[in-house]
Amino acid sequence: MSETAVPLKDKVVVITGASSGIGAAAAGVFARHGARLVLSARREHRLRELAGRLRGQGATVTHVVADVSRSEDARMLVEHAMDRYGRLDAAFNNAGTAIEKTPLHLIDDLAYEQVMATNVRGVFNCLRHEIAAMLTCGGGAIVNTSSVGGLIASSVAAPYIASKHAVIGLTKAAAVEYAAHGIRVNAIAPGLARSEMVEEWFARHPQAQQRALQSAPQRRAADPGEVAEAAAWLCSDAASFVTGATLPVDGGRTAW
User: Is the pTM of this model over 0.85?
Assistant: First the structure.
């Protein structure tokens, strides 16, 4: 996809969960489209390596170690973008986590809280600080990472399913509340993608990979870059009349 098709040149973009998987792929995609980036995750060495590689390719990139489940970290991240670049044009709130598949009645409090803290509170924290900054910049675009699990249910994943449904709810609420202020808020709902988390799951459960591929109409998993391109489009001016939407990037999974 060309830069003309995805007009992001010189836009300041925050990407969370950028140290691996879809987030790391998004860093490359957004950089290729000319965006100026602030990358964030909890793993500093991964961020430093990624930022250095992208700078070596000519991109404008900085990075911030942050745990977005903590409001002060999300605030620090946005403040860094504003201090460094003077504005915030777009954000891809991609940080997320999951737990080992477990029947609902066996899930303990800590496992539930861990998923909700990152997947829901993390998105909420980012949204409120990003929106506050964008209100001073004349608008912007935000994309939150939900999941096909935010659109349909599957067994032995109740906290994850609940958290990704909540992301869509936050997306719709923010989109309606701030549309008149020039701030668009959308979500993507990735299906099976070869992220680090998914690859680790397949390594532990080889039969799960075969079942997952059988349930995918295209009979394959997405490359993380394919998902990242959808987020880039939603963040760009090419999607100027799209807000409050959830875009499945699932190879047809939710069409079945």
Answer: yes
